[in-house]
Amino acid sequence: MINLPNLVFALVMGLLMSLSITLATTFVRVGLAENFFWVWLEVWSVAYPVAIVCILIYRPFASKITAKVMNVLGLNKP
């Protein structure tokens, strides 16, 4: 079950990451074309919901991997 803090985190992180990545990749792909904003907005409108779903699915897995890496490196919390 998804709790509210995890959902809010996914919404905020998804927004920031999808905006940043689609802005950079759209710029690389089309440059500062006349229709840059509309191309970017179209790409972002697809990427944002995908990012939210991915964050909700992968966050627990990524947290477990992070904890294991920190243990291996001896940097775990006391």
Order of helices and strands: HH
The main pleated sheet reads as: none
Number of helices: 2
By DSSP, the count of extended strands is 0
Overall shape? elongated
Q: Name the beta content range.
A: under 5%
Mean pLDDT: 91
* Rg (C-alpha, Å): 17 Å
Structural class: mainly alpha
Helix content: over 70%
Low-confidence stretches: none
Characterization of the model:
By secondary structure, this protein is mainly alpha-helical. The protein contains two helices and no strands. The protein has helices at residues 4-30, 36-72. Helix 1 packs across helix 2. The radius of gyration is 17 Å and the shape is elongated. The mean pLDDT is 91.
Name some characteristics of this structure:
78 residues; mainly alpha
What topology does this entry show?
Blueprint: H1 4-30, H2 36-72
Outline of the structure:
The protein is an all-alpha fold. It has helices at residues 4-30, 36-72.
